[in-house]
Amino acid sequence: MAEESDLEKTEAPSPRRLEQAREEGQVPQSRELSTFFVTITGVLALWLLGGWMAERMLAVVRTGFSFERETVFDVALMLDVLRGQLSGALLMLMPLFLTLLVAAVAAPIVLGGLNLAPKALGPNFGRMNPIKGLGRMFSAHGLMEMVKAILKSLIIGGVASMVLWSNKDHLLDLMVTPIEAGMADFAGTVIFAAVLIAASLGLLALMDVPFQLWQYHKKLRMSKEEVKRESKEQEGDPQVKGRIRAMQREMARRRMMSEVPKADVVVTNPTHFSVALKYDAERMGAPVVVAKGRGELALKIREIARDNEVPLLEAPPLARALYRHCELEQAIPAALYTAVAEVMAYVYQLDAWMKQGGLQPEAPADLQVPEGMDPGAAEE
């Protein structure tokens, strides 16, 4: 099947599509935001650590220009001095480097969140295709990145040139200024230029971040067919789901039928509805519905009840009310307590008659069902 064109992808990416993109390492990114974070962090670090770094740098410079005469003529001693100077310079710059490293890592997290994607670490030979690489270079995205790179270079170069030009006389005067004062003055000029550059990059980042978010979601947009396919994959094939539901209903029906022989009585309509009730005074607060059905299922309940000598009682209004308002394995509603109590009393009398003999009890007639509980003959 041919790949769907971007014109067909008009639907917003689904949560599952976004999740899959993150699993593959695709998150919104902005180089301009990263550049701004690194720059502003560097400026703050220089402002906070500038004094300490200047003192250490001054100490390194003094040590570098202060050595014994014998050192000049001994290569090993000169190398030791050089190693000491480099070590001192690295230790002095280490806090700045660590701060910049943290900023470089934090910038993508701010926009795309923390994302650990092992899939992104695997080889992707598709990126090695030179034709696709040229396509990316000359695409609209590549053109936009080139324009931003040029704009960023112009901003940095322009701000640096402006600061240098406006302070050219002052910078020339530093040549005759004592080294301590000169370095502090020069550091102030550098920090001022960095602040201006960071502010300019911040404006560029404010424009780039919304664009990157829009482009990211546009890239992940889906066609209507993809949305339907994903929905089907998540929810499952309707036919398979239908078969599963049918199997679940059949299993529930079998469980329900296995409870009929344990019932105390089955209330019938007499042909359309059947509801099996069970009551244990020691464990139940009220009679419980253990099985119910209508139509063929009602006939099956009555058949099982007869085979297991469970009493049957014809009480159409009560049968309809129990079927409508009672759930399986749930106690009957309080409104039906009176009518069901008469039924259970008849069942106990019937059980005693079958065991002891005597006069056969009469089945209760005209059981009163509260108004609104009986759905009436329309259910039949």
Verbal overview:
With 380 residues, the protein is mainly alpha-helical. 64% of the residues lie in helices and 5% in strands. The protein has a 4-stranded mixed sheet, with helices on both faces. A hairpin with a 4-residue loop joins β1 and β2 (273-278). The radius of gyration is 43 Å and the shape is rod-shaped. The two termini are 54 Å apart. The model has no long low-confidence stretch (mean pLDDT 78).
In short:
By secondary structure, this protein is mainly alpha-helical. It contains 13 helices and four strands.
DSSP E strands, number:
4
* Tally of contiguous helical segments: 13
Estimate percent helicity.
Answer: 55-70%
Order of adjacent strands in the largest pleated sheet: 3-2-1-4
Q: What's the average pLDDT?
A: 78
Report the principal-axis shape. rod-shaped
Q: Largest sheet, if any? A: 4 strands, mixed
Regions with little confidence, pLDDT below 50 for 5+ residues = none
- Radius of gyration, in Å, reads 43 Å
The assigned structural class equals mainly alpha
**Cα separation of the termini:** 54 Å
The run of helices and strands is HHHHHHHHHHEEEHEHH
> In percent terms, what proportion of residues is strand?
5-15%
Layout of strands and helices, then pairs:
Blueprint: H1 15-23, H2 31-64, H3 69-72, H4 75-112, H5 130-137, H6 140-166, H7 168-173, H8 179-219, H9 224-235, H10 238-259, E1 265-268, E2 273-278, E3 288-294, H11 296-307, E4 312-314, H12 316-325, H13 337-356
Helix pairs in contact: 2-4, 2-8, 6-8
